Amino acid sequence: MAAITVENVSKRYGTVTALDRVDLTVDEGEVFGFLGPNGAGKSTLINVFLDFVQPDDGRAAIFGHDCQSESVEAKSRMGVLPDGYTVYDRLTGRQHVEYAIEAKEADVEPMAVLDRVGIRDAADQRAGGYSKGMAQRLVLGMALVGEPDLLVLDEPTSGLDPHGIKQIRTVIREERERGATVFFSSHILEQVEAVCDRVGILYDGELVATDTIEGLRQSVGGTTKLLITVDRAEAGVLERVESLAGVERAWPNPEANRVEVTCSNDAKMDVLITLNEAGVDIENFRTEEASLEEMFVEYTSGAS
Ligand SMILES: Nc1ncnc2c1ncn2[C@@H]1O[C@H](COP(=O)(O)OP(=O)(O)OP(=O)(O)O)[C@@H](O)[C@H]1O
Q1: Which residues pair with 227 in a beta bridge?
Q2: Is residue 53 within 6 Å of ligand 1 at its C-beta?
Q3: Distance from the CA of 161 to the center of ligand 1, in angstroms?
Q4: Which ligand 1 atom minimizes the distance to the CA of 53?
């Protein structure tokens, strides 16, 4: 059964369309990265899952439970780190986790939870004195209590330092290993690449792409960069390379003693053959994948 089903969901706020006919299925056991720039509509969709927001059209379901008409059942399957989370200033971190354990009737040691999210040492401090990152870790810890089937994390890495980001990744991997589905939003591409099975790109309320990272790279096509170390290459040869089908640009980089070519994956071999036939001595070559940043720009600038 699908963990998340979103069918034709739209949500408008006055003249702003926060979600525009979004269709999405996330399979059980998947780690799904939900990407989009600020204001794209990510939190709005997560709020639909939680029944904080009612869609104007369409429906969303969690493990088959409608997020609006069966919100109690839907929510009982989820552990959530929401966008606008709050902590109780006067309660300690340990008390927060104890509260979550009681509410979910879970059987876990509070200190084990706090340890997992890296705030064991602050267990007996009041959460009012926590930094933003610590409060976020605490709410994540509470979301993990009870081993939810679906973990929904809204920008879980915002406010964390690189060490904290690494810890979140570890938690996500561990959750996947125990069989949970993870859905998390981010506007930072690098942070999803390491852990996601698939990503969806949301732009201006529209889901403009859903694929594996590799699939997205392939469909962006022409952004593979070939770096070819050569003895020398005359301008005329580079012009010939540039005229090949699938080649975007070819230019010399004398400092690095190489030529650089942006082309589609299919054109790589033709480039090397053309250089070889022109008598250019190829000492070495390697390809550089399109960066996630480039992919993101490609998708979000092309969308209307
Ligand atoms: N309660 C609301 N009332 C009016 N407009 C809203 C409301 N909630 C969201 N919006 C608007 O809907 C759009 C989508 O917002 P949303 O918070 O879902 O985006 P987001 O992708 O989560 O962005 P961020 O990463 O900045 O949180 C934005 O233009 C936002 O201003």
Answers
A1: 260, 286
A2: no
A3: 25
A4: 1
Give the position of tokens 């981010």: 186
Of 27-41, 116-130, 188-202, the poorest mean pLDDT is in 188-202
Ligand 1 binding pocket includes 11 (Cβ within 6 Å): no
pLDDT for 221 beyond 60: no
DSSP structural state of residue 290: P
- In our burial notation (b when 16+ CB lie closer than 10 A, e otherwise), range 60-78 reads bbbbebebeeebeebbeeb
Q: Is 43 in the pocket of ligand 1 (CB under 6 A)?
A: yes
Nearest protein CA to atom 8 of ligand 1, as residue: 44
Which ranges of 40-197 does DSSP label H, i.e. alpha helix? 42-49, 71-76, 93-103, 110-116, 132-144, 162-177, 190-193
Q: What is the pLDDT of residue 39?
A: 87
Task: Extract the tokens encoding 214.
Answer: 């590799």
| Residue located nearest, by CA, to atom 23 of ligand 1 | 39
Q: What is the mean pLDDT of the chain?
A: 89
Q: Parse the chain into domains and list their residue ranges.
A: 2-212, 219-302
Q: Is the CB of 225 under 6 A from ligand 1?
A: no
Fold classification of 2-212 is: Rossmann fold (3.40.50)
* CATH code reported for the domain at 219-302: 3.30.70.100
Backbone angles phi, psi at 108, to 5 degrees: -150, 150
Highest mean pLDDT among 92-96, 165-169, 200-204: 92-96
**What is the position in ligand 1's atom list of the atom closest to the CA of 187?**
25
| Cα–Cα dist 257/273, whole Å | 19
DSSP assignment of 173-205 equals HHHHHTT-EEEEEES-THHHHTT-SEEEEEETT
ipTM exceeds 0.90, yes or no: yes
